[in-house]
Structures are given as structure tokens and as C-alpha cells.
Amino acid sequence: MEKIMSIRMFNFFVLPFFVFLLFNLNGCSSNKVQQDVPKAVNLKSSSFYINQAKSLSGKKKNSTLLLASQAAIKEQNFKIASDALSQIDESNLSQNDKIVYYNQLSKVNFQNKNYIKSANNLASANSFIDDTSQKKKNWNKVLEILHYADIFSLTNSHNNVYQSDLSPWINLALIQKEYADNFEVLQTKINQWKVDNPSLLNVIPENINTISNYNDGGAQNILLYLPLSGKYSRQGQDILSGFKYKQSTSLNNTYQINTIDSNKIPVSQLPSIIQNQNIDVLVGPLQKDNVSKLVKSNSVSIPTILLNTSKEPKNNTSLCTFTLSPEKQAAQVAQKMFKENKFRPIVIVPDTNFGYRSAQAFKNSWLKVSNFSPIVLKIKGNNQIQSKLKALFKGKTNTPDSVFFIGNKSQLLLTKAYIELYLPAGINQPQIYSNSSTNILNSSQSELKDLQNVKFIDLSILMPGAKPSDYPVNNINDLRVSALGFDSFSLISAIQEMKLNPYIQINGATGKLSLGNDCNIETQYSWGQVRSGQIIKQ
């Protein structure tokens, strides 16, 4: 209890500066391949058609089983769909029914993560499609599905019997994956693929032709639109510092950098400034209200890296969003827990909007992989930490095997101490996971000793040994914001290539970057763990 009492001397509900930043500057996205299957009119339940098929034979039975599988897919019952399809005599199907049959097989295999089989099903369907535009559409879907297969599966696909015309598409998917980090080589390999497959030139997806013909125009004139005075001037200066440092260490350092203080020049003046100064790329705004104004106005057509989110829909493909996201961190915590065979998590959060958003993001991600709904403990004060944990561990039934904690480091230390105090004898200690809010990377030796075994998610640049030795910023909160500047510089030349090739990823200061839906930059954050008084990167 002495350790607990010493922890209670802290101000438990003052979150570190960067959490304030995430909440105030940051607002509140799995891709699925859509496959067109002819739709039945007034489709009934799968069980209706399965029962009906029992008394039928021949073509009528096949047609009814096709309806059963289509209804089952609509019901998200892929086992019933698979069983229905397995009873169909393929040789007794019409040409159109064969297209439907292979489309539905593709959906079932895709759901079961048999991606190459799923693509092969669509390749089989292509044999019965006469229209060239439909063939092109179908091959586009084949390549989309192959994107989900890993390099090992694609490389070893020759060990299986597939449609012979699937082979060049597997090779193309392999090219896109293997050379994602070298765009020039990627272009060369795609151009050679086109030479090797002249019969496919009229059905190649447009983005493949775009990669083949792409010539970077060489953006030179960059405008950073940041708060350089006023309330958020420190954050704006941090981003500018990170951006300029990254430029100074890059081979591509010929950019002309222009800066405008967003607290002095309104968003409404940006279009004329961009035109008059021949700006090629805009980085910013940072503040949420300015982002909303820019998005709503739809007045900027040059490539733009928005440093915050907006509730306004982006109706402009030139606008991309890159920001730190506590919700994304929470979702990644849930994914890691499940991979580490945790099945009964609890979530401990401050009873605030920030806490609610993070808990909801965790829960949404967790329920995609588990039927167990995690317990959420909302904490309003120090006494509640004690009372709620004491009540939770009162019995031995349904004790958690993992804890996701959101709050400051003092709260985490207190929570860990109470768990150790109240956990029933004979029950294994639950693994504790935390996000950036705990600021574990800025801990004393005494604190690290008390945080033994805690795992945490944070920005890559903050992990031991990751910060460039000559970068002058050492304050962890300033460094956290500077990371946005580091990665914004890298994204200027990479975003267009990322749009063209879905496999491209960048090892950035914030984490591993990739392009998601609606031109949102997705960040895969890094993991660390406290062991024997040291922070070890996982």
C-alpha cells in the first residue's frame, strides 16, 4: 500500500501535453473487394431454397442451389453457401449460370481467406464472359483479390492447379509487391510484363497503365500552412522543424519551402496565394477548424497533405489526410491482444470524450475477431480506480487476461499496483497494454521498475535508438509532433506512387505508412515493453 499511497500524490487526471494535442488538434477507416453477381428478384432465405432443392433434379435443382448460395452469402453464412455450391453439377449449367457460380465460389473462398482460389474462380468465370469491358472489369477484380495474398502464397501458387490465364496476373501481383519500395524498377518490370503479355493489353487495369507511363513532374514549390504564432505555435514550429530537418538529410532537397502563419492568413486567401506563387504542394492546415474550412470550400486543387481530420466529406482527390490518431492506436492494441491469444480484455479509460472514443475504437476492432464483448471501466477519480478494480477482482470467475489502459502514467502506476493487490490468489497477472497517453518512454528508473512487463504502443521515432542523433529536439512531446513534419516531407514524393501501387509502404517517424481509403494515410505504430528497468522495442 505504500507504493499506492505515493502514486496517489500525483494529479491523476491531467493527461500529458500530447494527449491534449491529439484530442484538440485531432478528430475522430479493412478494404473489401466488391464482386458483381446477378441479383435475384425478391430473394428468399437460403433455407427456403435448400429445402426446395431436395425435391428437384437436373437444371432446376442447380438453379435453386445457386439461389440458395446467393441467399446464404447475403445472410453472411458462407458455410451454407459453400455446401450449396458443392452440390451443383457445373457441367449442367448455362453460360450465364456458370458466371454466377464462379462468382459465388470466389466470394466464399475470399471470405475464407483463400485468396488465390478466389481469384482463380473469377478467372474461370472469365472464360464465359464475351464482352471486353466486362472481361476487363473481371480481371481488375482478380488483381484486387491477389493483392490480399502474401508473397509466399503467390510465389508458391505454381504448386497448385489453377487456370492457365491466371498465371500472368499472379506474376503482376508479385511484381507490385516485390518492387513496391523502388518505383523505377517497378515501372521497368511492369513494362516488361506488358511486352510478355500482349494479349492482355486491352484488359489491363488503368492504374497499371498509369504506373507504366508515370513521370514525376517534380514538385518544387512547397507551402507549409501552419500556426506559427498564437496558441498552437509550438506545434507548428515543431512540424516545421521536423520538415526542414528531413529535407536537409534527403537526396531530394531541392524543394523551395514557403511558410505561412495560419493565424495571420485565413484559409480563404490560400487559392490566390497558391496561384500567384506557383505552389505545387500544400502541407497543412493543422488546426481542425481550418481543415474543415479548406475541405468545405473545395477551392484547392493541388496535392495537399492535411494535418488534421474534418467532418466535411472530401470531394477532392487531391486532399490527403495525415494525422496522429488515438483511435487507430486503440484499434491496433486490440489486434495485438488477439494475436497474443488474449480473450478476456478489460478497458480502463478516463470518463471523458477522449476516453470514450478510444474505448469505442478498441471495442469495434476487438469485436471483429471475437464474440467476447470487453468490459469498459470509466474512471472519474482516484477512488474509483481502487473501488472498481476491487469489485472486478472480487470473484475468480471471468477475471481478465489482459488490460488496455488509457490515461496518464501516474494512473497507470496506480492501476497496476491495485491489480497486483486485489487479484485473487492463483490467478495469473493480466498483461497490461497502454497507448501513447501514458508517456512510458519518458519514465524514470524507479517508474520503469514499477512498470515491469507493461507493453505500450507509440511512435517509431520515440523508440530506443530511433531518433537521429543530430536532430536537436529532445523533449518527447516536441519530438512527437516533429514526427508529423518528418513524414509530411517523405509523403510529398510518395503519395502519388502510393495511389498507383497499393503495396507501397514507408518506414516513417510516426510508424509504417500506407495509403488507406479516401486518401487517408494509415500509420502502423511501434510497440515496446518494459523489461528489467529497460524499454525494449518489440
Automatic annotation (TrEMBL):
Family matches, as CDD domains: PBP1_YraM_LppC_lipoprotein-like
Pfam families linked to this entry: LppC
TM ranges: none
InterPro entries assigned to the protein according to its UniProt record, in alphabetical order: LpoA, Peripla_BP_I
Annotated signal peptide: none
Gene Ontology biological process terms from the UniProt entry: peptidoglycan biosynthetic process
Molecular function terms, GO-annotated: enzyme regulator activity
Alphabetical UniProt keywords: Membrane
Keyword Membrane in record: yes
GO cellular component entries: periplasmic side of cell outer membrane
Taxonomic superkingdom: Bacteria
Entry-linked PANTHER family: PENICILLIN-BINDING PROTEIN ACTIVATOR LPOA
Protein name per its UniProtKB record: LppC family lipoprotein
